[in-house]
Amino acid sequence: MEIRNLSETPSLLNSFISEIRDLEIQKDSMRFRRNIERIGEVLGFELSKSLSFSKLTTQTPLGSLESEVINDDIVICSILRAGLPLHVGLLNYFDKAENAFISAYRHHTSESGAFEIKVEYLACPDLSDKTLLLVDPMLATGQSIISTLEALKPFGQPKETHLVSVIGAQQGVDYVTKNVDDTVKLWIATIDKELNERGYIVPGLGDAGDLSFGKKLQN
Ligand code: URA
Cβ(86) to ligand 1 under 6 A? Predict the structure, then answer.
């Protein structure tokens, strides 16, 4: 898997990442969601440089010119519910994209923190020969991404697959690398060192779904 960790080159992106981690700024959930969206826009812009382009002649009021525009048929797939603000960020830029949604959640099987990934709801267009952007803001263990890719198989073989994430744990990035083929690309804002015993990224930011949409009762 090709990994593009955007925080390796310091940029404006780092300010957005630092805000979503900050305990005080996190109290403003609208700002949290909007920062995740902005990160999605930056990741989408970087990713766009790797897509295929074709020539388009545009008529202006004063003449005409040839430019290069994106050729790919894009499908953005996000994992509910935490993926929604990142999904919106990508859709702001890839505005003609089709969309897929999947519910993949952690079902805790013991007090020790062990869990399995449950996939239940899935709404997806035909993926054959499309460019799939699979969105998961927190790449923690990597299990949700791999379970989602498995669940998407009956919908056709994409031309290419891009994983888009905000914060990853090195362990999760390694797990995904082992379980996808070399053509898959990961676009990630930053990678942290550790996972705690409950599978949360440390230092990470906490629970991205709760910070975006409020706390939920555990099931
Ligand atoms: N999901 C989150 O929201 N946060 C983590 O740290 C890991 C998974």
Answer: no
Q: Ligand 1: which residue has its CA nearest to atom 2? A: 207
Q: Tell me the backbone φ, ψ of residue 212, rounded to 5 degrees.
A: -80, -40
Mean pLDDT estimate for the chain: 95
Domain boundaries, the chain: 2-50+74-213
CATH class, range 2-50+74-213? alpha beta
Residue with tokens 């975006």: 212
pTM exceeding the 0.85 threshold for the entire prediction: yes
By CB atoms closer than 10 A (0-12, 13-18, 19+), residue 41 is middle
Residues of the chain with confidence (pLDDT) below 50: none
Nearest residue by C-alpha to atom 7 in ligand 1:
200
Instruction: Compute CA 218 distance to the chain's CA centroid, rounded to the nearest angstrom.
Output: 24
Q: What is the pLDDT of residue 219?
A: 60
Mutate to test the pocket of ligand 1, among 205, 211, 215, 216 (most ligand atoms within 8 A of CB): 205
Q: Is the CB of 20 under 6 A from ligand 1?
A: no
